[in-house]
Amino acid sequence: MFAIQQRLETLTHKWWFYLVLLALFFLPTYSARPFDPRRTSDVITAVLSNPLIYSYPSIMPIFKALPVLLALALALWGDKVTRLVNIYVTLTIFLFAWFQNAALTPEFGFAVVLGNAVVYSLVALVWCWETVIKVNELHLRRQPLWRYWVIPVGFLAFWFPLNPETLGPDFSLAQLLTNNAGLTLCMMLPVYLAILILCYPTINRAALRITSFAGIVTACLNVLQWFFFTSYTWLGIFHLPLLTISLYGIFLSFSQVPKSVVKENRVL
């Protein structure tokens, strides 16, 4: 298993690996009904506007509560709950991959944003492997003070204070407790990456690297769409946590770890 992990580490240092991942994002979108390829963006919008993962609103509060409970468990027991965190991240990314990128649409029938589904399936497989091999040691550690910026930024993504009807800001407590952020990849990926950053350097660098790169591409596509091709500015703003934390995550994953940092003490 150690040899496989070493190969994965080596693979994620290759520049062409990221070109392959980027190309996979642009796999043709599937639709049960034929459509003009020039309408691909319409199909994607139709899918992402009402994906299968939002079919049961009653479970949304559960997926807001579970990450909070896991974060508390991590603060209290540290590495003892690492594998539980890995399992949760693996399962939710698989859910995001196939149920957030698939929908039954009135115009196109059953449709799947295949590129997103394939890329995030690969990300989930990396986390599944991490669950097996357990490279992560998720202790919250003393970090340079400036590195804690990921906490408020990640919390903003988790809160996702957006009114679903007006698509304007809504910082009510109800949005924090009951909205769909827990079932939304773009809101949860910054949270997962923030945890790895706060536990650095005893983390799976390959998992951080691949997850961060996928997050960068997804965030860039969303920011371009919401800022430049529509008037829904707040949707663009609420995708900035994914962009900024993913950029920092990939930078950190390629950084050299000083020996003194490896020996730093735990916060909790």
Set out the fold topology.
Elements: H1 2-11, H2 15-24, E1 30-31, H3 40-49, H4 60-77, H5 82-99, E2 102-105, E3 109-112, H6 114-133, H7 150-159, H8 173-178, H9 185-198, H10 205-229, H11 233-237, H12 240-253, H13 259-262
Antiparallel strand pairs: 1-3, 2-3
Throw out a few tags for this protein.
268 residues; mainly alpha; 3-stranded antiparallel sheet; 13 helices; 61% helix; disordered C terminus
Structural summary, described in words:
The chain is mainly α. It has one domain. The chain has 13 helices and 3 strands, in the order ααβαααββαααααααα. The chain has helices at 2-11, 15-24, 40-49, 60-77, 82-99, 114-133, 150-159, 173-178, 185-198, 205-229, 233-237, 240-253, 259-262; strands at 30-31, 102-105, 109-112. α10 (205-229) packs antiparallel against α12.
Describe the structure concisely.
By secondary structure, the protein is mostly helical.
- Unreliable spans: 264-268
Molecular shape: globular
Rg calculated over all Cα atoms: 18 Å
Number of helices: 13
Tell me roughly what share of residues is in helical segments: 55-70%
Count of strand segments: 3
Mean pLDDT: 92
Indicate the proportion of strand residues.
under 5%
Measured between the Cα atoms of the first and last residue, the distance is 30 Å
Outline the biggest β-sheet: 3 strands, antiparallel
